[in-house]
Amino acid sequence: MGGCVSSRDVDVEIDGKLLRLKRVIATGGFSQIYLAEEASNNEKFAIKKILCHGQDEIKCVRREIELLTRFAHLPHILPFLGVAEGRSVDPTFAEFCMVFPFCRRGSLQEDLANRRQTKQFVERKVLLEFFRQISEAIEYLHSAKPAIAHRDLKPGNLMFHQDFYTLQLIDFGSAMECPLIISDALTSRKMLDEAGQYCTMPYRAPELFTCEVGMEIDESVDIWVFIFNFFEEGKGEDWD
After folding, report:
1. Contact between 4 and 85 (Cβ < 8 Å)
2. Phi/psi of residue 73, each to 5°?
3. Is the dihedral of CA 70, 73, 75, 76 positive or negative?
4. Helical spans, DSSP H, in the chain
5. Under 8 Å between Cβ of 205 and 149
6. Run of H or E including 11
7. What is the pTM assigned to this prediction?
């Protein structure tokens, strides 16, 4: 599961495989996603590259890696193939390259955008199957001890596996253990900052906009988004 990043900054070695970064295919708030190819056979992978500047950022990435290791072997969660870490003499700086299968079919968000342009909307039976798969993925998280809330459950974080009928959840950088009690103003401010950093605004549960003192934040933040997505993805479909 471990590996290293080469000094050339274009190669990642993991479990004896040399992966060469080809190009950036997506950019997030704190990371870049690269298309990579194995040097020996050109097999394609996706690499999430994160540069950390400080112990807090390093701690967050290690937490994400821990969650990926726990959950990414389950159905409808994208497999996690390992991580390579770049070393530095400065202990507050680190580079992480997380390796995943390359999803050539793209995300549900991309599919929905294409469907809106062509007016070819998701059929009801397909939409219901999507939500069965999504509910199965979040059930794994919510039934953990302690429960895990994903907090950024959006179409862009749902990738098609090998076809257009199987979805897999990605991106655990936003995930948190719950429940969490907002006990004071400092905790409230911290949660608001986290929500601003990790939770995409249009898909953010209402309580994450306020984080009032005395409030309990739990896995229900995902349920709100789950229902929101259901109606969002069904737009334009005849449900009579």
Report:
1. yes
2. -90, -5
3. positive
4. 55-71, 108-118, 124-142, 185-198, 220-233
5. no
6. strand 11-14
7. 0.89
